[in-house]
Each structure stands twice: as C-alpha cells, then as structure tokens.
Amino acid sequence: MITETASAKKKPVKTRTFKASLSLYFSLPFYPVKSRTFFYHGHLALGIEDTVYQIYNPKLLKSDFLVSVMPVATWLYENDRFWIDRDPSSRTYKHVHLYRESELAKTKVYFIKIDGIDTNITGPVQQYFKTIEEQFQRGELKFNFLTRNCASLLNAVFYDNFGMCRSASDGIPSVIFRKVYDRLKTMDTDIHIGKLDKIKNPRFRIHRYCLGINSFSCEKYMDGWIAARS
Fold first, then answer.
1. Using one digit for the tens of pLDDT, what is the confidence trace for 176-216?
2. Residue ranges with strand state E in the chain
3. Which domain holds residue 158?
C-alpha cells in the first residue's frame, strides 16, 4: 500500500491509500469464416487501470512469451499489422493480436469492473503476472489447454485477493466470469457489469456454443445474464 505519513510528532498520523480499478473481460468464442475453428472456451483477460493482461498458448501461436501486456483501448479497438509485436520500443511489445484485428472486430466482450481497489492489491497482481512470465521463461511453467490456460492462471488473482474458492471448473472462462461476479456481490465492492459491442468484421463469426453455458446461443444467454443483474 502506498501511504503518506505526517512527520510532526504530536500530530495524528495521516495515511492516504491510493485506489485503482480492476476489470475482468470475457470474450465469446469466435471463428474466421474461411477457416472455421473449434475452440469453444471463450477467453478471459484482466485489466488494471488502462493495461490489460492476457494468457495465450505460446506453442500454438509460436510466441516466446506467456503473458501479453498492452493498453486496454488498443486491445479492444485497434487493428495491427502483426499477430505478435516484437518491437521493444512499442507500447504493445510482446502482445498477441489475434488475426491482426481488434478484439471487438472479432467478437463480443462482457466485463466486470471493480472500482476503488487498494493499490496494495493491484500492485501484487501486476507482480504476479511478472512472476509467472519469469517462471515460463525458466521452463518452470507451461501452458496447458485445460489446467493452465487463460482462465486458470487468472484465477489466482481472485483466490488470493477476494477469497474465491477453487473448483473443478476453474479452467472454463464463462464459469469463472460468473463465479467472480457472484463472489464480488457478497463483498463491499463497487462493481459494474456490461457488454462491449461494435460492428464486427464480417470475416469473423461468433460460435453459437460456448463451454460452460447451457445454451445454443451463448451471446443471447450472456445478454440475458447481464440484463438480469444490471
């Protein structure tokens, strides 16, 4: 925690705690129209203020890093010339831009935003992503599609800081997204939920089915879930 303390001996100690925002993003599974894929998991990403942290499969994408870090606005709204930015001087250095398109050009994104988070929480969360990247670089941590994926590796943030309990479904993004919301609603937190949407690139379509959602229209289901809690 960052504090400021008065130096006068007889005056009461004044402490100011700085606050930040933390956002959990859930992207619906999508596929390119010309080469349909069968990845039905969806995707989770974590935002701290204006920076988003994501876990991708390095082997599948032929990247030499595990954790992608970039500005939230760039991830959501901006296209790129490359799948992976390898320019050390770039603000999106070591980021995976799937299909060179912004996230909202490919799919729909739902979010849970928590305001007023103490920096004594967000600081260790940022360090956590540095730590797992270092473990990956040393060969101590490997991506696993079922147990060490974008959801399961993000879960540690909510286990350690928000008292969320572990379960067998913790590798499924849609389940974790709703589970985090349910946990936050029991706490004294200022949370906001919603959907980010814009006109998609016609090259992409959203899968009707998403793992963890008992519906053959995952977008319709999630829209209803958000509406019922807004």
1. 999 999 999 998 888 999 999 987 788 899 999 999 999 99
2. 19-27, 30-32, 43-48, 51-55, 67-71, 84-85, 95-96, 109-118, 190-196, 204-206
3. 19-229
